[in-house]
Design brief:
Elements lengths: L14 H11 L5 E4 L18 E4 L3 E7 L17 E9 L2 H9 L5 E5 L2 E3 L4 E2 L15 H7 L2 E5 L11 E2 L14 E3 L3 E6 L2 E8 L4 H6 L5 E2 L5 E7 L2 E4 L2
Parallel strand pairs: 1-2, 1-5, 5-8, 6-9, 8-10, 12-13, 12-14
Antiparallel strand pairs: 2-3, 3-4, 6-7, 10-11, 11-12, 14-15
């Protein structure tokens, strides 16, 4: 795999921009798990006119946004160990109950980070190779197979400029054919029977440029939507 030539960092989406796009795509009435890292940012951008119930693997159902300062309760944390609020009617459970929700198919969506995603939807998101092995995969496997839809947030390429959207994953897998959609710092890509289908692309980046930093083939059966910057801290799909 050759090294990709990435557009400058300032031309790409930030972690907060990616979280905004994910939040805008979650429909009203959904029960959603937010994984460690970038996914937890989604809680800060959920549309106020939608009723979305957030689940956290450590035993929270009805999680609110991240809070700091005097409002923060050190006993209430999300998957990223950030202090969070609780919505009215929220409940706290032990891990066995939380995992029963995950494994029992009670989650509509899970949003996870990713190291690699393959064209068929395979996901690698817990170790990069055997030398970097950690004690366990945690709940990632349960979430990947238990949720009805799996959304992945990630940079399009590694820090070294290597593609992360691949024909086949080279890292140990978290789940086989589990990914439905990928949100990166340059695009939103769906997984279909065709492979990777470009759903949306950041304004100012061409499809040819995006393909040059993607190992898997990007299919465009219809023109992709455009992600535009409304301000420095806000993005949206162009109407």
């Amino acid at each position: 795999m050759s090294q990709a030539l990435l557009p400058p960092r300032e031309q790409r989406l930030s972690r907060h921009h990616i979280a905004q796009l994910v939040a805008s795509d979650i429909p009203d009435g959904s029960i959603v798990n937010l994984g460690i890292g970038m996914p937890t940012l989604v809680s800060n951008y959920l549309p106020p006119d939608r009723e979305i119930v957030l689940h956290s693997e450590n035993g929270i159902l009805g999680m609110g946004a991240v809070v700091e300062g005097e409002r923060a309760d050190p006993d209430l944390i999300n998957a990223s160990r950030e202090t969070i609020s609780l919505l009215p009617g929220a409940s706290i459970s032990e891990h066995t109950v939380s995992f029963a929700m995950m494994r029992g198919g009670h989650l509509d969506y899970t949003v996870l980070g990713g190291f690699q995603v393959a064209a068929n939807g395979d996901l690698a998101n817990w170790i990069t190779d055997a030398k970097d092995a950690i004690p366990a995969v945690g709940g990632a496997m349960d979430l990947a197979v238990g949720a009805r839809k799996v959304y992945i947030t990630m940079d399009h390429c590694t820090r070294e400029g290597m593609p992360k959207l691949l024909d086949r994953c080279t890292y140990p897998l978290t789940g086989l054919k589990v990914v439905d959609r990928i949100y990166t710092d340059m695009a939103v890509v769906d997984i279909s029977t065709q492979g990777m289908v470009l759903y949306a692309i950041l304004d100012g980046i061409s499809i040819a440029t995006l393909q040059s930093v993607t190992q898997a083939t990007l299919h465009t059966p219809i023109p992709p939507r455009i992600i535009e910057r409304v301000s420095d801290d806000r993005v949206q799909y162009r109407a």
